[in-house]
Amino acid sequence: MASDAVWWKVAWRNLLRNRGRTLITASGLAFGYLSAVVIVGLTDGIVAELIENGTRLMMGQVQVHSPEYRPERNMHHTVGGYDGVDLEALLARIESDPDVTAAAPRLYGGGLLSSGEETRAGLLFGIDVDREQRVGTLLSQLSEGRLPEAGQYEILVGLEMARQLGLEIGAEVLLMAKHNVDGVYDSDPNENPDAVRFNNLDYMDALNRRLDVMDATAVSLCMDNKLPIIVFDIGDEGSICRILSGESVGTIITGSD
């Protein structure tokens, strides 16, 4: 105890001996501690904001997928597979968890977006507009126009995609994606093993032959607007990149001229 008292006395005497030096040292220590607190606070805030933006905008706090969906993220391996699933029952089961405040279904897929002579590859999201607004901020980032209405075949397009395609509010965009279909055949290849696939096809041939490509009205609209149609298997890995690089993939439907 006596030794401790001596050391305390010496320490206080040294502090008071040169008060200017003591003040500078104490100020330096205080500034360093304050800087560390500010930096740690800013770092924690940035990380929290990144997590919040990522989860609220796109990812969500928790995702439910089919066991076969990852890591390839194959759109054929969605929840329920080809047989489908009772979506309302699944959502009700998820929301019955007391820790879940809201749940929304999503369908992800790749496709081509065309307008006039411009075509771009894009990531497509199928959403439930009402439910989506409960789980994220994706739809709160609307810059122009309004939110899509259910059953009206309306879409939202990102600003950069709209710029590249030259789109404006009210412009029409054709979206077409196929699965397990790598082109147009003269007959059903599932029933006829000798079915022949077309590499190139004319609009009128597609209409006159009544080939099951797409709705006849849609083909007519593409013909009137001279919009080429490329029918390919979206599940074929790298197909979109090959198309964009100019490689012939699937069946191309264009005009005779």
Word description of this protein:
By secondary structure, the protein is of the alpha+beta class. It folds into two domains: 2-59, no CATH class; 81-254, no CATH class. It has eight helices and eight strands. The chain has helices spanning 2-17, 19-59, 87-95, 129-135, 159-165, 203-208, 216-224, 239-244, and strands at 106-115, 118-127, 174-176, 184-185, 197-198, 200-202, 229-231, 251-254. The strands form three sheets. A three-stranded antiparallel sheet has the order 2-1-3. The chain is elongated, with a radius of gyration of 31 Å. The protein starts with a helix and ends with a strand. The model has no long low-confidence stretch (mean pLDDT 76).
How is the secondary structure organized here?
Blueprint: H1 2-17, H2 19-59, H3 87-95, E1 106-115, E2 118-127, H4 129-135, H5 159-165, E3 174-176, E4 184-185, E5 197-198, E6 200-202, H6 203-208, H7 216-224, E7 229-231, H8 239-244, E8 251-254
Parallel strand pairs: 6-8
Antiparallel strand pairs: 1-2, 1-3, 4-5, 7-8
Features:
three-stranded mixed beta sheet, 257 residues, 8 helices, three-stranded antiparallel beta sheet, 2 domains, elongated, single chain, alpha+beta
Query: Kindly, what is the distance between the CA atoms of the first and last residues, rounded to a whole number of angstroms?
Result: 105 Å
Biggest sheet details: 3 strands, antiparallel
Question: How big is the Rg?
Answer: 31 Å
Report the average pLDDT across residues.
76
- Specify the structural class: alpha+beta
In the sheet with the most strands, the strands line up as 2-1-3
Strand content: 5-15%
| Fraction of residues in helix | 25-40%
Question: In one word, what is the shape?
Answer: elongated
Order of helices and strands: HHHEEHHEEEEHHEHE
Instruction: Give the total of beta strands.
Output: 8
Assembly level: single chain
Q: Uncertain segments of ≥5 residues (pLDDT<50)?
A: none
